[in-house]
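Quick start: what a row looks like.
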Amino acid sequence: MDVSHIFDQLNDAQREAVALEPRPALVLAGAGSGKTRVLTSRVTFLVQLHNVSPLSILAVTFTNKAAREMRERIEAQLGFPVGGMWMGTFHGLAHRLLRQHYEEANLPQGFQILDSDDQQRLIKRVLKEIDLDEAYWPPKQAQWFINHHKEEGRRANQVQISPDPQQQTMLSIYKQYEQLCQRLGLVDFTELLLRAFELMKNNEQLRTHYQQRFEHILVDEFQDTNSIQYEWLKLFAAPQNNIFVVGDDDQSIYGWRGAKVENILQFEKDFKESKVIRLEQNYRSTSNILNAANAVIANNDQRLGKQLWTDSGDGEPVKLFTAYNETEEARFVINQISKWVDDGGSRSEVAILYRSNAQSRAFEESLLSAGMPYRVYGGLRFFERAEIKHALAYLRLADNHADDPSFERIVNFPTRGIGDKTIDQIREYARANSISLWDASCQLVTQNQLTSRAKTALSKFVDLIQALEEQMFEQELHEQIDIMLDLSTLIAHFEKERGEKAAARVENLQELITAARNFEHPEEDDLPALASFLAHASLEAGEGQAEEWEDCVQLMSLHTAKGLEFPLVFLTGLEDGLFPHQRTLDEAGDGLQEERRLCYVGMTRAMQQLYLTYAEIRRLYGKENYTSPSRFLSEIPDEYIQQIRVENRFSLHDPYNSNNRQGVGSNFNIGSHMVDVDAKHDSGVAVGSNVTHPKFGDGMVTNLEGQGEYARVEVNFTEAGSKWLVLAYANLTLV
């Protein structure tokens, strides 16, 4: 079969990679440089021009979707199926190996695979068997400890830790868990990799067989490999070392889940005769976007180095918008999306990216208010997230003791020793007496129908809800949320767990306080503020996301965005402490460099237009903070960026100089021009105006920012205190 047409579709660097003679190769594939085309064409080249059997090729990638797409492309190029070819994810291939050699791996033929939830349940069983309280030893924390050591290739008897009692207890859990899995014939995800590695390492005959069989090893997304995956690959590749890896050290953003950027940096040392080929021509973005991204990532020192370029033209400059706060940031983004749609674009071409999932709330509220369909890509909407549902359940039960669904959700979360048997007793008593689960619990606590341990645990829960109700009484709404988070120990519970997901749950819970602060109690609503807020949360959760086939805006975290592309991208929240995240600024190591790689990934998702936004004041995680622009903004040369200003408002700081606030009479310097903050709004409201509000009463305007739909005023009310209001909705009357 003539495959010359495949080479006609490749640029020079791609052609060099595809046609490389058998040897170790590292292909540094920049964002949008056509790495999948190179991988599939490489397989076609080996099979068609070098007469390599598909059975002699091992192709490894990170997702089943990527593996399916790769197989489909290869079969389309070759013109025949390659069903016998080993192609799949690390976990999928390890599973295949263990199924074929279960005896050598010391596993029963019918061994079962544990998913993450199953693994947690088994850890809970271990905790019970060794009499450890889940409240003090969270199963997720133990899960992280076990998986971390397995990813580093360490069995429980190989872990060397300090004599610290907590670490020693964790090691004890690992040992018991390991023994239980072996006894029951259970294998978790990390065990698949570790057991497959040990099988290859310790069985010389088997290792030789597969080394001879797989003449060529191809690996996609090599920068995402962890320690055990890389060691496993090296076993397969030896001794001929015909290993062809494709990756990008500038897109290594999964260090928090075990990925080692060091692997891609180490490759040339481990494979002495390796060839490095750089794919730098980008087929996705405009020159201005690429040049800005290149300038940012150039500040990382732990990289092999490359410079993306394109022949598609300069395109629009990168737009930078400085918002007063997160509400104005969201309004601006939605306004620009509306203009995009009015100009003939579709909403599905637009992505709003953020560093923290908690940021989605402000955008969701603005999108819902604007009636603009959206989806949270790869995740849940704010009020649908499990930790938020737990928090709302505490509030609902304190507000309404008859709320049985809320009772069931939180009666033993966080774990407090109220088991399924006790809950069944409560249900039965409630059913027999036609009362709520709460009333049943209160009555059972005063009777002797429960065991002493169950009675004590349930009594503590009843006391907790009553204390919550008492302390929340007559407090401001956001203070009620704060009290609930403290007494429920929800934040403390998730802080005990390790990893990015647990940290995100904490941030979401803290963001619930901000949601309460910003909640505008409808004037026509006779409900108390808490009941109204809970109804609002239910209605927002019940709105439902747009269907996948609908034309809708995509919201997603930067980690989720990797591998995707959109004509219009908004990269939001570019503030030090948020992006780069505060955790990375506080910790030593590769954290800041990984954050910069994450910024690079976000910027290179944009095809035609990229907006960067940040807020001068941000209410996030329950606190209002004066922010500093992200250091990544100062790394972008002026020639690639255009600043967007809202007139009649002063800026607290310039993105290139956080100390740029200068007072000159009633004017403030804003970059290149002067803005009069005493200017009146179209409505006649100005700083110093006396106004009346239907709910808050009389007050004086102390600040004015924005104009038109962006206009907001700060009013110091005689009784209600200082409040920021949107002029379009505030219904203020000039006195």
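That is the whole record. Residues 233 and 659 are 51 Å apart (CA to CA). The first strand starts at residue 25 and ends at 29.
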